[in-house]
């Protein structure tokens, strides 16, 4: 009995080590607009994705993540250079993407 319990404990420890080591790091991507784009209309639709469920904000506003791990946000622009910041958070992992666009109405 004691040997069986130790075997189960050992298998559990090995599985925990394997599973936690295999987790992919959090990734955040902004698909549009591209960094450095010149825009003539406001607001701009910002779209992107994460590789796993996470909490995402765009310019400080929470956005909903679809079941396909994509998101969209509408960002109002001011004339001139605008910074768009997307932040994804999952547990202790934080990823940030910053891009600038120029609005010329």
In the CATH hierarchy, the third-tier topology is known as Immunoglobulin-like
The neighbouring-strand order within the major sheet is: 2-8-7-4-5
Per CATH, the architecture is: Sandwich
Mean pLDDT: 89
Number of strands: 8
Q: CATH homologous superfamily, by name?
A: Immunoglobulins
**CATH top level assignment:** Mainly Beta
What string gives the helices and strands in order?
HEEEEEEEE
Rg value? 21 Å
Major sheet attributes: 5 strands, mixed
Number of separate structural domains: 1
Helix content: 10-25%
Low-confidence runs of at least 5 consecutive residues: none
Distance between the termini: 77 Å
> Helix count?
1
- β-strand amount: over 45%
| Structural class estimated from helices and strands | alpha+beta
Which overall shape is indicated by the principal axes computed on the Cα atoms? rod-shaped
Observed structural traits:
single chain, 105 residues, alpha+beta, Immunoglobulin-like, three-stranded antiparallel sheet, 1 helix, 8 strands, 47% strand
Q: Could you explain the architecture of this structure?
A:
The protein is built from 1 helix and 8 strands; from the N terminus they run H-E-E-E-E-E-E-E-E. The mean pLDDT is 89. The protein has 105 residues and is of the alpha+beta class. The chain has one domain: Sandwich (Immunoglobulin-like), CATH 2.60.40.10. A hairpin with a 2-residue loop joins strand 7 (80-90) and strand 8 (93-103).
Q: Secondary-structure map with pairings?
A:
Layout: H1 2-22, E1 28-32, E2 38-39, E3 44-50, E4 55-58, E5 61-63, E6 70-75, E7 80-90, E8 93-103
């Amino acid at each position: 009995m004691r040997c069986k319990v130790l075997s189960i404990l050992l298998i559990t420890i090995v599985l925990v080590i394997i599973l936690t080591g295999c987790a992919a790091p959090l990734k955040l991507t902004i698909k549009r607009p591209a960094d450095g784009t010149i825009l003539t209309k406001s607001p701009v639709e910002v779209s992107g994705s994460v590789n796993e469920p996470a909490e995402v904000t765009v310019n400080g506003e929470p956005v909903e993540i679809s079941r396909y791990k994509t998101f969209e946000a509408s960002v109002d622009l001011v004339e001139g250079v605008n910074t768009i910041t997307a932040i994804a958070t999952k547990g202790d992992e934080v990823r940030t993407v910053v891009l600038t666009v120029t609005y010329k109405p």
